[in-house]
Amino acid sequence: MNLRLTYRTKLLLNFLALFAIFTALLVMFQHNREKQYKRDLLEQRLESYADVVAKEVENDVVKNDTLKFQNLANVLPSDLRLTVINNRGQVMFESLLHSIKEMDNHLNRPEVQMALHNDKGSDIRHSTTENRDYFYYAKLYDQYIVRVALPNDATTQTLMKADNVFLWFVLMLFPVVLIFVIQISDRMGKSISGLNDFIKSADRGLVDYAHIKFPQSELGDIGYAIMQKYKQLEESNRQLATERERLMRHFHYFEEGVAIYTPERQRIYSNPRFMQYVNVILDKPTADLDAIWQSPIFAPAIEFLKLNGGKRPTTEEAPIFRFTAQGGGNTFGVQLLIYKDEGFELTLADVTRAEKNKILKQQMSNNITHELRTPVSSIRGYIETILDCPTLNDERKFYFLKKAHAQVVRLTDLIRDVALITKTEEAAELMPREQVVVAKVIDDAKEDLNDKFTANQSELFVGVPEGLTINGNYSLIYSIFRNLIENSLRYAGEGAEIHVNCYSVTESFAFFSVYDTGKGVPEEHLPRLFERFYRVSEGRTRDCGGTGLGLSIVRNAVLFHHGDISVRNRREGGLEFLFSLHV
User: Fold this and answer.
1) Residues 332, 256: contact at Cβ < 8 Å?
2) Are 112 and 145 in contact (CB under 8 A)?
3) What is the spatial distance between Cα 108 and Cα 90, in angstroms, rounded to a whole number?
4) How many Cα atoms occupy the beta-carbon half-sphere of 4 within 13 Å?
């Protein structure tokens, strides 16, 4: 089994090992120092004996007074061996009464050599003469060396033996140091354990900040600071993840196609709309979105990337490029934005409707200009005629003024219709809603058109329930019924009947029919009746006094109320409009 020690245990063992090694070295040093001290004391004792001998025999050494040497040896300790040696190594006296002549030359003895070189010397060695170990001490005097020796027995060894007081002191100190080391390792171990717990929980992504504690120490402060920094980083990452999720969700439901690429054109992300638009633009459907880089349609984007490759975009002026692409009958706006890291974003927007609206607005502007030109020119002509011909009689002047007034009315109607259709298209959400009684709206329209009914000898038949209401805008609902009724009065012919019926009502919609018994419209013109300024025949609208915007206003008003409208010729004759309004 692989037993893994905790950091606290490792730290404690390391501290103990270091302390044990240090203590052992210190004890060994002190032990050797103590032994040397005891040896020095013994040498000092032996030196004092040698000095006594040298002083007593100072004048008799040359005479070699053996008797005096012997008497002096007798007063020394009984176990002390005395030897006097000349400078040539010859033994002059030996206290053990050996024959001097039989003794070897002592010049090569270690203690003698040390004395000759250092004035004194000592050695522990085996004596060949006595066949036992001695502690020798030799000291050099003027012409001789005095050597004293003690047997290296138990007594002498006891004298040189080191005291164990320091060892006992260290042994007594060891538990105290052990407790101190345990406390230090415990404090450091808690810090490291806290960091270890923090790292493990961070790896799991479940950091329990409330239960991870650090001691009050410098290492603990560092661990706490690391944990707080990680907590801040985790919170920042959480916020980044939330923002990224929001951004991805935004991209997912974005009306435009978005794709993000690396500088090497490796796609990092693309939303579903991008896939859809790419397959509309390309000739053949494909699941490989990188196929756009082989399509000539995206050649301008590739050229732009080549021109701006290697540049470091700034925040103030990021490289951006826009162009249009055609595909599937649609027009797409392509935008290329290069990031600071030279990655880039490719955006595809379906601008087909915007392009069509742009064209329609241009056409409408042209048509309005054209429609305004006629009444303005007519009014100018009538007024200039009156001003230039002061001899005109009153009847003729009245005729021209009446004609000018008719053109002013037509101009007013045109401006009103243009304003209404613009409002329904661009500011429909600002138009108020209320409960509108349909029958009352039809009565109001009939009352306003009463003169035209009389002049046209037409009659209105209404089949709408009295209590039917629509939650909508009164002005728009009024414009629906007035324009449809007025359209029949203008083009159905004299004596035509006009019928307004509500043929069905459900929980969501009311379905209406407005038709006349007139001559109808050729079939090829029916699909274009709701276009602005469209005329079945040139001059028809102007001759009948219309602006050419009535049916277009009707269509927009119906769409505003979430309904639908269609037109057809009746078998019995006449034109019929079928439409629905959300109740």
Assistant:
1) no
2) yes
3) 11
4) 1
Contact 464, 445 (CB under 8 A): no
Sheet of 120-127: strand order equals 91-94, 81-86, 144-151, 132-140, 120-127
469-472/434-437 β-pairing? antiparallel
Query: How distant, in Å, are the alpha carbons of 7, 10, 15, 16, 212 from that of 4?
Result: 9, 10, 18, 18, 22
Instruction: Please tell me what DSSP assigns to residue 206.
Output: -
Mean pLDDT along residues 473-495: 88
Strand partners, 402: none
Beta bridge partners, 267, equal 261
Is residue 411 within 8 A of residue 372, CB to CB? The reply is yes
Q: In whole angstroms, give the CA distance from residue 209 to residue 188.
A: 19
Strand spans (E) along 453-574: 459-463, 469-472, 497-505, 509-516, 565-569
Do residues 343 and 263 make contact, with C-beta atoms less than 8 angstroms apart? Answer: yes
Q: What angle do CA 384, 389, 394 make, to 5 degrees?
A: 100
Q: Are strands 320-327 and 330-338 parallel, antiparallel or unpaired?
A: antiparallel
In this predicted structure, what is the pLDDT of residue 1?
A: 47
- Which pLDDT score is estimated for 460? 92
Domains and CATH numbers, the chain: 7-160 (3.30.450.20), 166-247 (no CATH), 254-350 (3.30.450.20), 355-426 (1.10.287.130), 431-582 (3.30.565.10)
Beta strands in 396-496 (DSSP E): 434-437, 459-463, 469-472
Residue type, 503: Y
As a whole number, mean pLDDT of residues 256-265 equals: 87
Radius of gyration of the chain from its Cα atoms, rounded to whole angstroms: 62
- CB of 331 within 8 A of CB of 355? yes
Q: Per DSSP, what are the bridge partners of residue 85?
A: 91, 145
Indicate if the alpha-carbon torsion angle 180, 185, 187, 190 is positive or negative: negative
Residue 427: C-alpha distances to residues 358, 362, 483 (Å): 17, 19, 21
Mean of pLDDT values over 152-163: 74
Please count the other Cβ atoms lying within 10 Å of the Cβ belonging to residue 2.
3
DSSP per-residue letters across 133-146: EEEEEEEE-SSEEE
* Residue listed under structure tokens 């001695």: 134
Picking from 258, 430, 467, 471, the residue whose alpha carbon sits closest to that of residue 347 is: 258
List beta partners, residue 84: 93, 146
**Single pTM value for the model:** 0.42
Pairing assessment for the beta strands 320-327 and 434-437 based on DSSP bridges: unpaired
pLDDT surpasses 60 at 154: yes
Q: Which of 125, 50, 123 is nearest to 84 (CA)?
A: 50
CA-based angle 511:516:520, to the nearest 5?
A: 110
